[in-house]
Amino acid sequence: MRAADIIIKKRGTGNQKGQELSQEEIEFLVNGYVDGSIPDYQMSAFLMAVYFSGMTFGETGILTGCMLRSGDTIDLEKLKGLKGPFVDKHSTGGVGDKISLPLAPIVASLGVKIPMMSGRGLGHTGGTLDKLESIEDYNVNLNEEQFASIIEKTGFAMMGQTEKIVPADKKMYALRDVTGTVESVPLITASILSKKVAEGSDALVFDVKCGKGAFMKSESDAGQLASFLVKTAQAMGKSSCALLTRMDSPLGFKVGNYLEIEETLECLQGKGPADVMELTYALASRMAVFGGMAKDTEDGIAKCKEAVKSGKALSKFLENVKAQGGNPDKLLGEQGKRRSKFKSELFAKQDGFLTVDAYKTGIACINLGVGRNKSSDKVDADSGIIFCRRQGDFVKKGEKLLEVYGKSPDALESGKQQLEAALDFCEEKPEEKKLVLKEIK
């Protein structure tokens, strides 16, 4: 078996489209790439062939399984005798998307066990791990034993991908990032699911975003990805569903690493923004159903709301902060006070209805210090923005729209200029669009 022949088979020739690959062919490529016998240039060619020719659900499932088996998997029952179902949620990424942070303690407070392996900021979108690490001494670099112990103790744990978990994904993703093949639906599906299955999840709820601030701009593209995720997960024996959600303007009032932790506290204190809470409850209710703690989504929403109202969800979050090395009292004491010393403000340049472009906002936040321009960059915990007025609000000229915080004077000035380009003013109120577009099961 030769890598070149497999690449040609998937690529196709002339007007003939690429063909479906066998399990043996996909295993040969993935295993060879991990052990070093297949070089970067051949894997790059294969990824491009998949980008243009696609993969069937069957092929995508095989690829996911091969990537999963390339390293260790976490067996929570074997490690700690924990009983499932274990339920997790994954978002395809957005701006101000802190949903995992309030969602996990809400659902865990109902008795559902949540193993959550999260990522760092990618492109213009924020990363859950970066946000959590803005909590002083919060440890996301857990080993398998620590991960299982914290789930046993607090109901959920947040960790990053270790070197031994799905190494095929780490290597392949690095190539995708530099070869223009990130947006391939089968490759995205295999990347997400290999990690989620490796963490020990029995059921998965996906938040697949579409719009200006999402990787999938159109509803049809997002729908295709959601279908691939759900059907591939189900083919691997996992209960699964997906919500298509809108990401044209940022979620919530705060964007930034610590600022989104602060807004998480507000959500759990019953003071969360309407859009953040709507999406949190929509996803959390489905996790509650998969976890056997709600009979349907309506029951799930009611129970999640009660968990917030009673204070149980906030207590669960603070339990987790302590278990993962942070200081809950210090975190609460910083609320509303912790800000970068490099601050500016933006004001309305004219009367009109405000519109906020999520993608441009995300790019501006990278330059403020929230995200990375390259993988070696360090993020700044206290950079970010606070919206005083939001998408669809009518504003008067001179009215304050944003508070802006940067990691340095230069970063502040650069980010502020880009934020001005993210704001626009309309004579007519923009159409209010649904946040949750549809569910795919």
Automatic annotation (TrEMBL):
Recorded GO cellular component terms are: cytosol
Origin, by domain of life?
Bacteria
- GO biological process annotations for this chain's record? pyrimidine nucleobase metabolic process; pyrimidine nucleoside metabolic process
- Residue stretches making up the Pyrimidine nucleoside phosphorylase C-terminal domain: 353-426
PROSITE patterns (UniProt xref): THYMID_PHOSPHORYLASE
Q: What reaction does this enzyme carry out catalytically?
A: thymidine + phosphate = 2-deoxy-alpha-D-ribose 1-phosphate + thymine
EC no. given is 2.4.2.4
The entry's protein name is: thymidine phosphorylase
